[in-house]
Amino acid sequence: MKFKLIFLLFNILIFLSFALVIFMPVMMLGSGYAGSFWSSSWYLPRLLLLVVIGIDLYFLLYWRLFSLLETGDWSLLKGYLEKKVLQQGSTRSLFVRSLLHAYFVTGNLSQVQQLEDLLRSKKPGLMKKFVLELGLPKLIRKDNQQLIKFFDEFREKKVPRRNWVRFIHAFASLMEKEHSEGREELLQLSNEVKDPLLKVLVIYTLDPFRNIDDQAFGRVDRIREEMLQAYGKNELLEKLEKTKDNIAIIVMGPLIKDAIEWLYAQGGHDSEN
Predict the structure, then answer these.
(1) Closest alpha carbon to 259 in 210, 198, 218
(2) How does pLDDT run across 97-149, given as a tens digit for each residue?
(3) Tell me, what DSSP letter sits at residue 50?
(4) Of 180, 137, 128, 136, whose CA–CA distance to 155 is shortest?
(5) Measured in whole angstroms, how far is the alpha carbon of residue 57 from the centre of its chain?
(6) Residue 264 in contact with residue 251, Cβ under 8 Å?
């Protein structure tokens, strides 16, 4: 209902704006000057009309999707999107993104593989756009070898949230006892990452190597002290709680929380700082 109301109000607002553009010269300049104005500015109402038509067509094209998102019925939404994407082969970015989210919300992660296969064969360019979402189910089911193989394709490319892709690749490498490769990736990330949630996760994962690797020892201690000075415990926990736009943070939330607890237990700082 809210979506339909927003659509209606938008069109009313656009109609009023259109009328204002049309009649303002008459009201401000008079009919004589208005004719001269429109003879030289004839393109303005046409341009506005084209913009309105374009926006309305976008809403109408995704009307069913937006309506289902508004109801919050993820099972119904999943069924609709599977028909659109998997059966009809529509690989529009919004459909693919929404279907991935529906799979995570409903817990149907095994079906992500079918979507991955479709994208790989029909629209491989979208693989880069959704690499993190496509790889996370492999992490959840602890299929580390497949996860490493999958992320190997993309971790050196320009993909969204690339540092998360690199971290999860390193994490999976450690789980497969590939300690040297995983440690080197973590050491690189520790100097490059800006996101505090990912940074604390990196040094937490790197910490077990501090007793056997002088570089890891110095890096963990330095960054831990920097983070203790820059962030309070409650600040990081609040950021973790509020971050909803990164599926990796949601999936790895418990591990990130453990990392935050470790940071302040080790540092001995007041959690309110």
Answers:
(1) 198
(2) 999 999 999 999 999 999 999 999 999 989 999 999 999 999 999 999 999 99
(3) H
(4) 128
(5) 25
(6) no
Residue 74 has pLDDT above 90, yes or no: yes
Tell me the angle at which helices 162-175 and 196-206 cross, rounded to the nearest 10 degrees. Answer: 20
Q: How far apart are CA 179 and CA 186, in angstroms?
A: 10
Instruction: Write down the pTM of the prediction.
Output: 0.81
Q: Which tokens hold the place of 250? A: 């949601």
DSSP letter, residue 252: T
Cα distances (angstroms) measured from residue 182 to each of 148, 168, 178: 11, 10, 6
Cβ within 8 Å of residue 165, ≥6 positions away: 131, 132, 135, 151, 154, 155, 159
- What is the separation of C-alpha 97 from the centre of its chain, rounded to a whole number of angstroms? 9
Residue type, 39: S
The whole-angstrom separation of Cα 17 and Cα 34 is 17
Count of alpha carbons within 13 angstroms of residue 132, beta-carbon side: 22
Count, residues in the chain: 273
Joined together, the tokens standing for residue 158 give 């320009």
Token output for 205: 């994962």
Q: Report how far apart, in Å, the C-alpha atoms of 43 and of each of 22, 34, 37 are.
A: 12, 14, 11
Looking from the CA of 35 toward its CB, the CA atoms found within 13 Å total: 2
101: three-class secondary structure by DSSP: helix
Rounded CA gap, 91 and 190, in Å? 36
Q: What whole-number distance in Å separates Cα of residue 151 and Cα of residue 223?
A: 26
Tell me the C-alpha distance between 223 and 205, whole Å: 13
Place of tokens 């790989």: 120
